[in-house]
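Predicting holo structure, magnesium ion bound.
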Amino acid sequence: MELELKSKEDLERMRRAGQIVAEVLERLREAVKPGVTTLELDRIAEEMTRKRGAVPAFKGYRVGPRVFPASLCVSINEEVVHGIPSSRTLKEGDIVGLDFGVTIDGYYGDAAVTVPVGKVSKEAGHLLAATRESLWQGIRTVRAGNRLGDLSHAIQSYAEGAGLSVVREFVGHGIGRNLHEEPQIPNFGEPGRGRLLREGMVLAIEPMLNLGDPGVMVRDDGWTAVTCDGSLSAHFEHSVAVTADGPVVLTTL
Ligand code: MG
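Done. Tokens:
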């Protein structure tokens, strides 16, 4: 997909999309409890979205012959991203990644959080806190004139400094009138390298970090990515506009 620079009006529409995504994720965060099924979370997300006149962005999303069947991606424990909602219930001590996108008025918003189910282990708590912070380390580099490598490097160096590994197979992306636009945004890279950030770009930045090795594979369902070594994985994402004054996070309340 082409990279299209967004006008002020475009960004206002993207802000609306982002706000709906944030509202849904906030509600889901409250709904995450032991005993809740992941299908119930999907139902809440879809209902809230449609009530606001928006459309879930992932439902019906195609990759080749495969069609994503739900509104929400729910990824538990060693699942990295793209988990499919099901009758599986959440258990105390799980961590659950919630990745959600909507489209409204021709524009998309996309964000993700990973949340604890009840009380989680110390390692899991560290993974959640450090993955969230790695996203913010990346966001802080978003400024016209910086390069994509500055962003990628900020995430990687923070993640590895926290003793975590960076998933290579999935990356962030531009977002706008399409869910996925140029550029691809790796969560690893060299400072000073890569594409120049320009005012009007909007970046969906989404580090995926593992407690163990970085390798991931996709399960037989064709969607769910899991760590090869079975270690826990976390995922946080925001859609962020590049402005002359620095980053503007669109996927907030
Ligand atoms: Mg995304």
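The chain has a mean pLDDT of 97.
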